[in-house]
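Predict the 3D structure for this chain.
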Amino acid sequence: MEEKYLKKIAERGQLIVISGPNGVGKRTVLKAYLKDHANAVTATTATTRDPRKGETEGVEHFFLSELEFDRLVRTGQMLHYSFYQNRRYGTAKETVERERDKGHNVIVDVDVVGAMKIRALCPDATLIFMLPPSWAELEERLRERASCEEEVIQKYLEMAKEEIVCAGQYDYIIINDEVEKAVGRLAQIIHGNRYSKTSMKSFLDSYIEGEIIPLTDYC
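Done. Predicted structure below.
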């Protein structure tokens, strides 16, 4: 007969934070990973901009007033946030926790600053940094973007230098040399991390309560 505590192994999902320079291919890798892993979801972000035609509340974004967004920031309920074209964007802690409580692994794609903010608020988050196979490859990928002008490319490259220097603060490093291989590496990390002491805490507490404490009382 299966003990109740065994169900706790898959009871709570992980929080996976992924960073990497522009052009490294994070979105491509994540799209491929999510396609084959139904238990994983990306966090729905909140924004203060108005909904665009066809957008649905809670699907593309949570649309908040500036007052409500600022309240979440002040009370420590926003895992990370940033400004773009005078609008605020961020991920609310409640959104992530709700999905994790359902047993979903939640993936957040964010820059280095955002990743450090998340780590401070959620120490059990797993941080993964994605690297290009070489600097030349990263530059080539950026130049392949038809919309990128030289000035923009140079800006991205300067930002990439600063970000890569911070990669040592992450738990894992993935090299995106080939999408399929990078997806496999990501899957290995997430699967293996499921059995880390942090992810297994609820299970272990329940196991001790159900198996060890009765023996101690008996003795």
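The first strand starts at residue 15 and ends at 19.
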